[in-house]
Design goal:
single chain, FAD/NAD(P)-binding domain, 3 domains, 22 strands, globular, dihydrolipoyl dehydrogenase (NADH) activity
Length: 471
């Protein structure tokens, strides 16, 4: 039995960053990974693969360049599944190699096999590497897996979840996506621009309700423009895989009794914490709903020596937050004191086509909190850089407190929205005013000019006495 300061079960974003931080501070660390590839869902089934597919879809569809240069780009042959997944596979391999090098660089031992917690300080590894390990602390970073509703014939060929969709053998002519959350909307836009006829089914009357309604409406309009059909306030019942001689592969009924069918079904109905079979409940760790491990603000479980971070603890279940949760947990374990809590607020990035990214208060939230707010808008198509790029859609919406002129929230839909939002984060967190935004000099032409012109629009919409007559 080998002793370590820390054993991390799971090598995804949260586990990797926790392990590296502990090792950087001189702690002995072991990482246990049951899959053949390192990186967890962030590398293999979630974050990076789906975002890479989005860029691939944009490339093969050519929608960003259509009509810009006089002659539209034409590919010599239609993209097949091998083409579609080529770049995804390249990025996965590159990322896994990077994680492996990071572990080697920090002298972290990696054990390939299934880890089971047999007491608060011991882990049994069974697999490629059989080992009995002991540590002062154990960190669970096993991530999540797609929730599969009962009675649905998931076969990994015609009926998929968000993991198996990454191994399809061909691009379907038609697809029904069940669930209009972030994952469902992202895949809907990816397949739609590749020419798949997509129907997006949702049990509620709207999608992505946490977004500013104006931004959400623009996203819906864009998705409908790309021929995505919304089937709202409906549930899927009785799914049946049809024999090969039928026109469609999958047939189902909606809750109102109407039929719905397609070549392929994708269920994007949420995810569950990967906590089963780890021996956690047996040693006293509390498991909550959908397999999520219950932790305190330091990410410590009911067992003092066992911590948990990332998707396995539930909301917000983002790679970005998981990485910092891992670092914070390690800081508390060993008393480093350098990173003791996750920031209260963080940006949301939705990698649909077009992208959406938001930070701070929506217009509605600001009013509910008692602000008399003013809204400024700037559109991509009005920016010189937007014209150069040929961007037809996109907007930055800035929510400002009329009394103090402080920026309360920034909401962006459009190309590289997930990149542009970080300046908005700095404005909100530093309690900057629109004067700060206007008085900055930005490279020209750039999309960052959206901020300046949204701020000018605030002056106009707010009827400020000293508002400039032109800009």
């Amino acid at each position: 039995m080998k002793h370590y300061d820390l054993i991390v079960i799971g090598s995804g974003p949260a586990g990797e960053k926790a392990a590296v931080k502990a090792a950087y501070h001189g702690k002995s660390v072991a990482v246990v990974e049951k899959e053949s590839m390192l990186g967890g869902a962030g590398t293999n089934t979630g974050t990076l693969p789906s975002k890479t597919l989005k860029e691939t879809a944009l490339y093969y569809s050519g929608i960003n360049e259509s009509g810009l240069f006089g002659v539209d780009k034409e590919l010599k042959r239609a993209a097949d599944a091998e083409d579609f997944f080529f770049r995804k596979n390249e990025v996965q391999d590159w990322q896994e190699l990077g994680i492996e090098k990071n572990f080697v660089l920090h002298n972290i031992d990696v054990y390939k096999g299934k880890g089971t917690v047999i007491n608060p300080n011991r882990v049994q590894v069974v697999g490629v590497d059989d080992a009995l390990l002991e540590a002062d602390f154990i960190l669970i970073a096993t991530g999540s897996y797609p929730f599969q509703p009962e009675g649905i014939p998931f076969d990994g060929k015609f009926v998929h979840d968000s993991d198996t969709i990454l191994s399809i053998k061909g691009i379907p002519k038609s697809m029904v996506i069940v669930g209009a959350g972030v994952i469902g909307c992202e895949y809907a836009t990816i397949f739609a621009v590749m020419g798949t006829k997509v129907k997006l089914v949702n049990g509620h009357g709207d999608i992505l309700t946490f977004l500013d309604p104006e931004i959400r409406d623009q996203l819906v309009d864009s998705m409908e423009h790309d021929n995505i059909e919304f089937v709202l306030n409906q549930r899927i019942e009785k799914v049946e895989i049809l024999p090969e001689d039928h026109e469609f592969n999958v047939h189902a009924k909606l809750s109102d009794g109407d039929p719905i069918q397609a070549d392929m079904f994708l269920y994007a109905a949420g995810r569950s914490g990967q906590s089963a079979g780890l021996g956690l409940a047996e040693v006293g760790v509390e498991i909550g709903s959908r397999g999520n491990i219950v932790v305190d603000k330091e990410y410590r479980s009911a067992v003092p020596s066992i911590f948990a971070v990332g998707d396995v603890i539930g909301f917000p279940a983002l790679a970005s937050t998981g990485m910092d949760q891992g670092r914070v947990a390690v800081s508390h374990m060993f008393g480093f004191g350098d990173q003791v809590q996750l920031t209260e607020h963080f940006p949301y990035g939705i990698y649909t086509i077009p992208e959406v990214s938001v930070y701070g208060l929506t217009e509605e939230e600001a009013k509910q909190q008692g602000y008399e707010c003013v809204v400024g808008r700037a559109r991509y198509v009005d920016m010189p850089r937007g014209k150069i790029m040929g961007v037809k859609r996109g907007m930055l919406k800035m929510v400002v407190d009329k009394k103090t002129e402080r920026v309360l929230g920034v909401h962006i839909i459009g190309k590289i929205a997930t990149e542009l939002v970080h300046y908005g984060m700095a404005l909100v967190d530093s309690k900057a005013t629109i004067e700060t935004v206007i008085n900055r000099v930005y490279n020209m032409p750039t999309l960052h000019e959206l901020y300046k012109y949204a701020a000018y629009n605030v002056l106009i919409e707010g009827h400020y006495l000293d508002a400039p007559t032109g800009h």
